[in-house]
């Protein structure tokens, strides 16, 4: 059998394309080549490329190199380069363009596979979990909680409830591999009296089609999820502790100029609101050993979407949970924070050496805080930072917000403590 | 999808997040003015970290040792210069207040003295400045005392050469030597001061670098490093590195992209909101309109449109690089309000024949003309609006690069503007 020849990567005229992509008043010619972008980019130097080099090569017409450089899969499109650029030049647009230009058989297989799986069922799950399996897992876990946790004998996890206020999405990782991790959020929603529902369709909170640079697939997934919310007549699409699922839908709606009849909100905003309103009576009394915590701002909901307001909400929640004195901010933070290196599909791309090299800066940031725990409302950040702790020999743990909220409230079940280190587990014994 | 328009209501809106805009927000905060601050990244990231008041007179002459004396000369020779809008005592108070604020936030500076300090530039030449970051101050002492000193640079670091520093300073600083090290964990490729600085915020890198410095220093006890001693709390990084190495260590500024500017930006962006300023970072305002009851500023961030309504506005939008001024074949414009720009009569007069002409180029004195309250003037010489003030290098009649007065103009005019805003709102 003859070996298959990989499809050649078409060559893009980057300069020409770049000029079309520009917003009003912006100019790639305005680049001063000062290097703030590269200086502030964790991907700088990987695959012998950096943002400044990328933009200069584009201006010089070095289209073949740029069209074929694997660096575009190491850039997480976190837009920190634009954030620090005095001329506000957005290099991530060119990277997305380059990604979309690669034939599918040349793109990192993991990202392509995740996108294919998303489109394989009505769930839109990147792990391919079909609707009926999702419904089964949810009900199965719910039955067990009701049977084993008397305080939650009447816990609800509604599915396809017409007219519910909140449409809550769910990262596939939980129903697929750690179903008990769904429970803390159910408890929180129960406690605050939220009128919520899952949907059997479009429930999943991943969208690797965006990262694959597959515009048509991104559009399809966006449409399918919008339809799922509209079918149930929900008022608010409440995004779980996940960064890119929010960004992919929110940005997809803007990008494809779609009309939706519901609001898009982040769980973080509601955690903060429910704490302020007294519906989530958390406090930090449990932290009697003054265990230190830091927080990771996911690019997808902070720098690239809500900005400072959600970053502030996140800090309010963390301070309420662990005590103001036990919270140590990473430097830099908020909109200036570094991407962890798990975004942009990097975790799925199979480029582990490059990804860990990228993540070294995140690792250093965490180490510099001296915190024992990192809280983050993003599954990719979560996985990446855990992996970095292993790869670079750190001794911190990464936890979801829902875990700590339930811990603070004294309602964290025994099977819901996967991410706690020995110090926190000891407090619960 | 309907985008919610967010509203910010405040007493003072500051437009611009360069040194002038940040300084205005600091002064306003200290005076309990409810303030919103917005602006793009701008040129702050390019600073050496030194805060110059006045280092030279326009038109040449020797570097100035006594900036306060020079201010009096300036009053007599260039009364239109922005530094002549307030008394030397007020300028001193402004510098004191600004550096105290930075110090209280964790970035220590020498207070404004009676004379300029002589400090090192990234290439090892000398310049005059008023206030020096405490991470750099020991360099000035070592230079004055001519202490034996080793200057260290790093493989892969562009924009800073220890050999160049030594070559330029060797004549006036006899026992000066250079060495090059591999920065811990950064053995390959191009490396940036920012990345090294972040890494030095971890104990492991500090310990490793301290060991390398001890080995390379030999008998020398004073070491000059490029400015890489941490972004956040650099004084602590320096102190710990000194403790671990047993050496006296100081920083020398580097070429952009450099750490001192990133330090200032990140510090101010964090501390100002903690002290009550509403910060909308990395955004340029689109329109500015003066309505009867309020001044309205329209802008948008990634999330959507924002409207700021203020009782007064300070425009600190810089010159060409930051977009405060725009040049086209017909002349120089102020793009936001189309304020009259003081400028050479025609484009042919922008530049002199010789690039290095000691008199400088007329275009570098272009900008907004203001009254004594720092209010921009119309073509008829009246204030454009009693609620509009102006600060920083957008002001006309100064060539800040040649006369080393960028921070002076920024801090002094911000101070003056905020004082005037307070008076206006108090009336």
TrEMBL record, chain A:
Keyword match Membrane: no
PROSITE patterns found in the cross-reference section: 4FE4S_FER_1 (PS00198), 4FE4S_FER_2 (PS51379)
One example GO MF annotation: metal ion binding
Record-linked InterPro entries: 4Fe4S_Fe-S-bd (IPR017896), 4Fe4S_Fe_S_CS (IPR017900), Cys_rich_dom (IPR004017), Helical_ferredxn (IPR009051)
Annotated 4Fe-4S ferredoxin-type domain residues: 21-52
Keywords (A to Z) from UniProt: 4Fe-4S, Electron transport, Iron, Iron-sulfur, Metal-binding, Transport
Any Pfam family the entry gives: CCG
Domain of life, per lineage: Bacteria
PANTHER family in UniProt: FUMARATE REDUCTASE IRON-SULFUR SUBUNIT, HETERODISULFIDE REDUCTASE
Protein's name in the database: Fe-S oxidoreductase
Source organism: Desulfofustis glycolicus DSM 9705
From TrEMBL, chain B:
Coiled-coil positions: none
Pfam families: FAD_binding_2
Highest taxon, organism lineage: Bacteria
Residues in FAD-dependent oxidoreductase 2 FAD-binding domain copies: 13-409
GO molecular function: glycerol-3-phosphate dehydrogenase (quinone) activity
Any one GO CC term of the record: glycerol-3-phosphate dehydrogenase (FAD) complex
Regions that span the bilayer: none
InterPro entries on file: FAD-dep_OxRdtase_2_FAD-bd, FAD/NAD-bd_sf, G3P_DH_GlpB_su
Keywords: Flavoprotein, FMN, Oxidoreductase
Name the UniProt record assigns to this protein: Glycerol-3-phosphate dehydrogenase subunit B
Organism of provenance: Desulfofustis glycolicus DSM 9705
């Amino acid at each position: 059998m003859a070996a298959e020849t990989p499809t050649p990567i078409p060559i893009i005229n980057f300069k020409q394309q770049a000029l079309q992509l520009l917003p009003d008043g912006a100019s790639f010619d305005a680049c001063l080549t000062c290097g703030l972008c590269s200086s502030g980019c964790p991907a700088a130097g990987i695959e012998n490329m950096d943002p400044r080099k990328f933009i200069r090569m584009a201006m010089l017409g070095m289209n073949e190199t740029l069209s074929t450089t694997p660096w575009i899969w190491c850039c997480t499109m976190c837009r920190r380069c634009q954030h620090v650029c005095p001329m506000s030049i957005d290099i991530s647009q060119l990277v997305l363009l380059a990604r979309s230009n690669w034939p599918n058989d040349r793109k990192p297989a993991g990202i392509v596979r995740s996108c294919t799986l998303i489109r394989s069922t009505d769930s839109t799950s990147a792990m391919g979990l079909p609707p009926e399996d999702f419904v089964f897992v949810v009900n199965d876990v719910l039955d067990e909680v009701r049977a084993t946790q008397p305080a939650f004998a009447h816990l609800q996890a509604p599915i396809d409830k017409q007219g519910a206020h909140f449409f809550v999405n769910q990262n596939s990782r939980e129903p697929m591999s750690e179903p008990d991790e769904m429970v803390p959020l159910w408890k929180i929603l129960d406690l605050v009296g939220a009128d919520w529902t899952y949907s059997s369709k479009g429930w999943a909170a991943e969208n690797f089609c965006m990262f694959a640079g597959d515009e048509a697939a991104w559009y399809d997934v966006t449409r399918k999820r919008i339809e799922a919310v509209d079918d149930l007549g929900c008022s608010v699409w409440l995004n779980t502790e996940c960064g890119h699922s929010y960004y992919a839908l929110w940005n997809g709606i803007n990008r494809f100029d779609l009309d939706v009849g519901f609001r898009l909100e982040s769980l973080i905003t509601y955690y903060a609101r429910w704490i302020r309103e007294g519906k989530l009576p958390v406090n930090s009394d449990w932290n009697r050993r003054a265990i230190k915590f830091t927080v990771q701002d996911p690019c997808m909901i902070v720098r690239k979407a809500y900005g400072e307001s959600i970053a502030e909400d996140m800090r309010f929640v963390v301070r309420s949970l662990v005590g103001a004195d036990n919270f140590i901010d990473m430097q830099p933070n908020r909109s200036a924070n570094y991407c962890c290196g798990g975004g942009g599909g990097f975790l799925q791309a199979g480029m582990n050496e490059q990804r860990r090299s990228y993540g070294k800066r995140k690792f250093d940031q965490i180490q510099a805080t001296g915190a024992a725990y990192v809280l983050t409302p993003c599954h990719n950040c979560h996985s990446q930072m855990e992996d970095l702790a292993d790869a670079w020999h750190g001794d911190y743990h990464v936890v979801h917000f829902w875990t700590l909220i339930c811990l603070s409230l004294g309602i964290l079940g025994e099977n819901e403590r996967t991410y706690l280190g020995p110090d926190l587990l000891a407090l619960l014994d | 999808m309907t985008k919610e328009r967010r509203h910010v209501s405040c007493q003072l809106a500051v437009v611009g997040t360069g040194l002038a805009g940040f300084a205005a927000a600091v002064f306003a905060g200290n005076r309990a003015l409810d303030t919103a601050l917005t602006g793009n990244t701008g040129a702050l990231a390019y600073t050496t970290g030194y805060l110059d008041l006045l280092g030279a007179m326009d038109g040449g002459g020797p570097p100035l040792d006594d900036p306060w004396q020079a201010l009096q000369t300036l009053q007599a020779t260039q009364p239109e210069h922005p530094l002549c809008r307030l008394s030397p005592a007020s300028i001193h108070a402004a510098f004191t207040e600004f550096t105290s604020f930075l110090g209280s936030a964790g970035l220590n500076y020498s207070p404004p003295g009676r004379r300029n300090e002589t400090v090192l530039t990234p290439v090892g030449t000398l310049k005059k400045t008023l206030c020096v970051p405490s991470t750099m101050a020991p360099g000035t002492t070592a230079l004055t005392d001519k202490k034996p000193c080793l200057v260290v640079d790093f493989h892969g670091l562009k924009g800073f050469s220890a050999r160049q520093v030594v070559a330029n300073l060797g004549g006036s600083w006899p026992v000066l030597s250079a060495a090059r090290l591999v920065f811990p964990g950064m053995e390959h490729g191009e490396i940036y001061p920012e990345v090294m600085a972040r890494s030095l915020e971890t104990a492991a890198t500090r310990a490793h670098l301290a060991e390398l410095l001890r080995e390379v220093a030999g008998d020398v006890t004073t070491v000059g490093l490029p400015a890489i001693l941490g972004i956040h709390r650099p004084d602590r990084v320096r102190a710990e590195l000194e403790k671990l190495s047993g050496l006296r260590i100081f920083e020398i500024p580097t070429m952009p992209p450099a750490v001192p500017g990133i330090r200032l930006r990140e510090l101010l962006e964090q501390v100002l909101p903690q002290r009550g300023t509403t910060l909308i970072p990395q955004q340029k305002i689109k329109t500015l309109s003066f309505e009867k009851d309020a001044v309205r500023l329209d802008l948008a961030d990634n999330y959507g449109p924002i409207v700021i309504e203020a009782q007064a506005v300070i425009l600190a939008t810089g010159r060409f690089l930051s977009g405060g001024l725009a040049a086209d074949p017909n002349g120089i414009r102020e793009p936001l309000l189309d304020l009259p720009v003081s400028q050479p009569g025609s484009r042919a007069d922008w530049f002199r024949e010789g690039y290095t002409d000691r008199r400088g180029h007329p275009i570098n004195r272009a900008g907004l003309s203001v009254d004594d309250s720092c209010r921009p003037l119309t073509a008829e010489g009246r204030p454009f609006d009693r609620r509009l003030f102006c600060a920083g290098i957008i002001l006309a009649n100064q060539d800040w690069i040649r006369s080393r007065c960028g921070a002076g103009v920024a801090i002094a005019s911000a101070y003056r503007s905020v004082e005037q805003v307070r008076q206006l709102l108090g009336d």
